[in-house]
Amino acid sequence: MNKQLYTAMLELTHNPLYAKVLQSFVRSRASSLLIPGFIKTFQVDMADYLEDPGSYRSLQEFFTRHTLEGTRPVTMLEKTIASPVDGVLTASGSLRGDGHFYVKGVRHSLETMLAVTGAGERYQNGSFAVFYLSPKEYHRIHAPSSGRVLKRWAAGEYSEPVNDMAFLLGRTPLADNYRLMTEMEGEAGRFITAKVGALNVNSVMPSSLQDSFEKGEEMAAFGFGSSVVLLYDRPDVRWKKEAGTFVRQGEAIAVEGQS
């Protein structure tokens, strides 16, 4: 697909009417007719989920399905960071001190992503990780570390795909798409969990607006496959997984304070 065609398709998705129609459909009862085909096409393993596949009244309900208790144990080892989602670890590492991070060779601006002047300064020498959730994955987001909430804010209006084609063409969807950020502070230091919307469906739904979260506690849900960016203000986070690794929500992905 050439750049001009891809760009033209993205402009269509930015049309408010188009987005509204799509959102209405995925929340409708009619959309539930697509669920059996979706499960088969994407080979979704339903053994981990609470509800029977026939009980979902819409694609939205299916995308935000709950897991069975005990299927996502949360690491309780001291100084560990837990994966906030089921997904592929796209990138992780240390930030370079220049206010940018790199995903698949594309430079993303912290200040642009956070959309608040000066907000990235605290994190520019810290650590980051990016997770991609395909449409088939568990779509709920959980706290990677325990802490109290300092701030919540949203940025961006529309969303485009967070996929290889976008990065190949040099686009920066993680910094430009609709996104909902939560900044927290705890024993791990300060950290931000940025929930980035996917193509067309900007539904990042907070599960709770409570003042603090324990590690592994549910924070929000996606209405479609999306991405999560973690930022820690400390530079000594050691990521335990290689880029391209599939991780499950709750498993240990990093250790604080070790080189």
UniProtKB/TrEMBL annotation:
Transmembrane segments: none
Keywords: Decarboxylase, Lyase, Pyruvate, Zymogen
InterPro entries for this protein: PS_Dcarbxylase (IPR003817)
Pfam family membership, one: PS_Dcarbxylase
Gene Ontology MF terms in the entry: phosphatidylserine decarboxylase activity
Keyword Lyase: yes
Listed GO biological process terms: phosphatidylethanolamine biosynthetic process
The protein's name in its UniProt record: Phosphatidylserine decarboxylase
Source organism of this protein record: Alkalicoccus luteus
